[in-house]
Amino acid sequence: MIGRLSGILLEKNPPQLLVDCQGVGYEVDVPMSTFYNLPHVGEKVVLFTHQAIREDAHLLFGFGNAAERAVFRQLIKITGVGARMALSILSGMTIADLAQAITLQDSGRLVKVPGIGKKTAERLLLELKGKLGADIGASGAHAAPDAQSDVLNALVALGYSDKEALAAVKNVPAGSGVSDGIKLALKALSKG
């Protein structure tokens, strides 16, 4: 299994790259999020990869970081979501946006990605709930990431829905500790 490539970027033809690794050229398909962050042709590049072996082809998919690769691997486990659709999802939205859409169960954001219909979006929401760090609600909140996660988990443990908890955590100021964050979030929830 090829898990990582380090070499010289020879060609960039979206969504495919050609990477020279000590004389061997690897064709790698990447999401646009990775493509936009690539160095110039002729420069060194490092990609985390996922190799897919099919009856008719050996395919290599590359990602700028391990988190993108992990999300890609979660996506392709879902029935009806192949590698091309997973690349399309990662090209159409950030991991944080995807996690937030899953937390809020917002199929409208997923349907905006080309190739995803209403049924596929609903299947994605159902099967990815709790698997992508979605309970953290990574984007849009202001508290420190670790404190934010702990506050969110505490609110969910107290019986609030993911949506209510995420909305309350957004009101917690940056730098708040966990106990202060929980108090402030509970105050916000009691007013609402």
What features would you describe in this structure?
The protein has a five-stranded antiparallel beta sheet, covered by helices on one side. Helices cover 45% and strands 20% of the residues. With 192 residues, the protein is an alpha+beta fold. The chain has nine helices and five strands.
Q: How would you spell out the order of helices and strands?
A: EEEHEEHHHHHHHH
Number of strands: 5
Largest sheet: 5 strands, antiparallel
Strand order of the largest sheet: 3-2-1-4-5
Number of helices: 9
What is the terminal-to-terminal distance?
52 Å
General form: elongated
Give the helix/strand class.
alpha+beta
Give me the Rg, rounded.
Answer: 19 Å
What would the average pLDDT be, to the nearest integer? Answer: 85
SS strand fraction:
15-25%
Q: What is the percent of helical residues? A: 40-55%
Low-pLDDT residue intervals, each spanning 5 or more residues: 134-144
